[in-house]
Structure formats: structure tokens, C-alpha cells
Amino acid sequence: MERLNCGTDDVVKNMLAKLSTLWKTRAAVNNPQPNYWGLAFDADKHDFSLSLLPFRHHQAWLEAPQDLQSKCLSYAWGIYNLKTIYIECNVVVPACEDIIKTPPPSNNRALLQDVMSQALLDEALHTRMSIMACNYIYDMRKLPPLDFSAFNLVTWREALLANCTAEWERRLTRFGVACASETLITDYLKTMAEDASIQAVCHEVTRTHAMDEWSHSSVFSFVASDIVNGLSRKEREYLRAIILRTVQMFANNEMGAWSNVFSMLDFPHAGEIVRDVGDNNEISVYTDSLEALIDRIGLTGSGLSSAEHAIETLGEKARA
Ligand SMILES: [Fe+2]
Ligand SMILES: [Fe+2]
After folding, report:
1. Alpha-carbon dihedral of residues 210, 215, 219, 224, nearest 10 degrees?
2. Ligand nearest to the CA of 85
3. Of the ligands numbered here, which is closest to the C-alpha atom of 83?
4. What is the predicted pLDDT for the residue at 31?
5. Mean pLDDT, residues 120-131
6. Cα of 11 to ligand 2 centre, how many Å?
7. How do residues 8-46 score in pLDDT, each as one tens digit?
8. Which residues form a coiled coil (predicted)?
9. Which CATH number describes the domain made up of 65-319?
10. What single-letter DSSP state applies at residue 110?
């Protein structure tokens, strides 16, 4: 994507208008939904890409019986979709609603509301697709569904919001976490969307979602450019810190969810796996995308102080 001239309302206006028009033909919600459930179920296929399992190299995993490994891969699909649903409902939707209900001061006010209401519809469909695809796998595999809500990105965001002292901070927190997530979700969906060796329904549902999210990363970038345009230096520094910090939370291994799954399955040496694997995922997969975003929306240079200091301050805020 080209670098934006953030000072020009027209650049943003033209792009938002173009994206809004494209949505009418390209978005999944505007096209007939394929009958995913008509796709053949193959019990021998994995329900999830093995390369995404955070403990795939751990000795206890490698030594586990195949049947147990297969159940873990079905639950990996469950965790992946539940996390997706939490991102859609608890992170992205509130940011869309902010802009729809009280748009920022901008000459592009109506367009901002237009594209955000489109994204809101898309996310509702994605949530529906995820929950149906999860339940389909639980049914076919005869597995009890996983209930879990403490995803790291969501709890971190809530802690930040609880410690904000001004409304502008709360609003930029909601927008910044959503904007970063909308950029990262394309990377998050990519492996499953491209892995044709997995269960057909899992591959197809993820592929359809990934295509919509490709557009959303542009939509959120241009909306962000418009918002950044009207921010003070202090507000820009705050938004940049939120966006950069989101990557660590987004990429988290979610071992809390895995702990629950391991106890449901009575998985041997589960405690060792949870202890050895830890929180940090391969963040480098995501970092490049966010640095490009920061650059694209005009949050580099222009007299902003160091990002490290701002991120450190945020860390203190979330812990307070
Ligand atoms: Fe989505
Ligand atoms: Fe999205």
C-alpha cells in the first residue's frame, strides 16, 4: 500500500470512497454463502495447521498418542475461533461503534461512518462463521466444547481502559488496539487460509474471513490516517504506543486456554508444556506489519519522542 499524505483530506476521502464501493461487491456478507457444511468431512485430516501449535516441538507433545494429538488439533481450532470471536466482539466492534456514534472531527465524517458500519456488518458475519465452524468440528469429533474468555489481548485492553484517566485516552485505546488488531488478523489467518491440507471446512471458512480482513486492514489504515490528522503530539505518541504494544498481546500463545484443554483431555505432562512454552510467540511474524502501519498512518518522525518510552509508560498503566 502506498504511503499516505496524511495532511490531505482528499487522499483519504478518495480511498475511503473506493473501499466503500468495493465492499458492495467483494465483501462476503454481500455474496451468497457457500454451504461449508456440505464439504466432505475427512476424519483423518487435521482440523488445524500443526505449524501454528506453540508446543509442536515439545517432547511431551511429540510423545503423545496420535488420538490425543488429533483431539488437541480440534481444540486448537476451537481456541483459534474463540479468540477470533473475542477480537471481533470485544476489540473491533467497540471501535467501529465509537466512530459510527460519535465520529471524530473530520471533513470525511459521513464516509468514516459508512466504512465503519460496513466493517461492523462484516464482523457480525465472521463471528457467525467462526461459531458455526467451531461447533461443527465439536459435533463431528464428539468433543465437549471449550469455554474460555480470558484471552490476553482482551484482558490487557480492559486493564488499560480501567486505568485511563481521560476520555481521549479511552477512545484512542479502543481505536488503537482495534486498528492494530485489524492489521495483525490478516497475518493470523494467513497460514490456515493457505493450508489446503487441513479439514476443508476449516480452510474455507478461514480463507473467506482472510479475504474480508485484507480489505479491513486498508479501511482501518485510512480511517486511522484521518484520525491522526486531527491529533496533538501527545495524542499521537499515545496512539503509537498502543499500536506497537498490541502486537505482544495479540501474538500471545494463550497457554491459559491450552491449560483448560489439557485438563479436559487429561494430557500427559501438561504442566511441563505450559511451563516450558510460556507466553511469547514468534512476534517477529507480526512486527513488520505494525511498523509499516505506523509509518503509513503518519505516526513516525514529525517530532514524536521515542516509542520505547511511551510503551514503557503503557506497561505501567496496564499494571496499575
Ligand atoms: Fe473479521
Ligand atoms: Fe475485521
Report:
1. 50
2. 1
3. 1
4. 96
5. 96
6. 22
7. 578 899 999 999 999 999 999 999 988 888 888 999 999
8. none
9. 1.10.620.20
10. H
- pLDDT (mean) for 62-83: 97
Q: What is the pLDDT of residue 35?
A: 87
Confirm if 217 and 55 have CB atoms less than 8 A apart.
Answer: no
Gap from CA of 88 to ligand 2 centroid (Å):
7
Please report which ligand is nearest the Cα atom of 119: 2
Cα 214 to middle of ligand 2, angstroms: 8
| Nearest ligand to the CA atom of 29 | 1
Residue 184 CB contacts under 8 Å (≥ 6 apart), including other chains: 246, 247, 250, 251, 286, 289, 290
Q: How far is the CA of 267 from the centre of ligand 1 (A)?
A: 32
Neighbours of 288 (CB within 10 A): 10
Q: Rounded distance, CA 163 to CA 165, Å?
A: 6
Of all residues in the chain, the percent with pLDDT exceeding 70 is: 91
Q: How far apart are CA 303 and CA 31, in angstroms?
A: 46
Write down the mean pLDDT value for the chain: 91
pLDDT at 74 over 80: yes
Closest CA to 84 of 184, 179, 172: 184
Domain spans of the chain? 65-319
Q: Which residues neighbour ligand 1 (ion) by CB within 5 Å?
A: 123, 126
